[in-house]
């Protein structure tokens, strides 16, 4: 039986950024569920929350999570994110960051409605023409990592049009002083 509990699914919740999100959600009293394959995450961070170890593109696992929990939002922090490695192993990046995310989106849409928060990156902009980079700066990624993120951003817009999937994309970077939100 599905728990009617307004749970947030945090994918990649044992990684660098996802684990901070898990901490914030826990402190604010929000029910959450973590899905992580521990490829770059930390098992010890799973102790304090409801979780499953597995891949985000595993449809049987996703069906189980969505059938057993009333997931109201999915926060997606699970990706490979090393620029250099993405150049030497682009297929690894396209499979993990795109193929797996497509499976997730399809299962979300089948089990929805749910909101989607996507951890994108400032790498979607490529070489900035000016800094600080404004939000509507042209997107021309210069490496496979940035391309995989931009591809999912485009797909999300199309999923909103076609299926009403509501989402936001967070394009953060290691140089926050270079980013300025368009008012
Ligand atoms: N750290 C940064 O400076 C930065 C900047 C911009 C964008 N981002 C983006 O933010 C997100 C989180 O980055 P991070 O630095 O915390 O990375 P991280 O490697 O620390 O965390 C990623 C987490 O996702 C998990 N994971 C990866 N692929 C998975 C899969 N297929 N199924 C299930 N779990 C999987 C890993 O085990 C890990 O716990 C990524 O999408 C990254 O592209 C990070």
Write the layout of secondary structure elements.
Blueprint: E1 3-11, H1 16-27, E2 32-36, E3 50-53, H2 59-68, E4 69-76, H3 83-88, H4 90-111, E5 115-119, E6 133-134, H5 144-163, E7 167-170, E8 179-180
Parallel strand pairs: 1-2, 1-4, 2-3, 4-5, 5-7, 6-8
The structure holds nicotinamide-adenine-dinucleotide.
Characterization of this structure:
The protein is α/β, with parallel strands linked by helices and 183 residues long. It has one domain (3-180): Rossmann fold (3-Layer(aba) Sandwich). It has five helices and eight strands, in the order E-H-E-E-H-E-H-H-E-E-H-E-E. A six-stranded parallel sheet has the order 3-2-1-4-5-7, sandwiched between helices. Strands 6-8 form a two-stranded parallel ribbon. Helix 2 runs parallel beside helix 4 and helix 4 (90-111) runs parallel beside helix 5 (144-163). The model has no long low-confidence stretch (mean pLDDT 93). The structure holds nicotinamide-adenine-dinucleotide. Residues 11-12, 14-18, 36-41, 55-56, 77-79, 81, 96, 100, 119, 121, 172-174 line the site of nicotinamide-adenine-dinucleotide.
- Structural domain count: 1
What's the N-to-C terminus distance? 45 Å
Per DSSP E runs of 2 or more residues, the count of β-strands stands at 8
The CATH architecture assignment turns out to be 3-Layer(aba) Sandwich
What is the arithmetic mean of pLDDT? 93
What percent of residues adopt helix (DSSP H or I)?
Answer: 25-40%
Structure annotation, total helices: 5
Q: Which overall shape is indicated by the principal axes computed on the Cα atoms?
A: globular
The CATH top-level class label: Alpha Beta
Rounded Rg: 16 Å
Helix and strand composition category: alpha/beta
Main β-sheet, spatial strand arrangement? 3-2-1-4-5-7
* CATH fold group: Rossmann fold
Are there runs of 5+ residues with pLDDT below 50, and where?
none
Order of helices and strands: EHEEHEHHEEHEE
The proportion of residues in beta strands is 15-25%
The CATH homology group name: NAD(P)-binding Rossmann-like Domain
**What ligands does this structure carry?**
nicotinamide-adenine-dinucleotide
Largest sheet: 6 strands, parallel
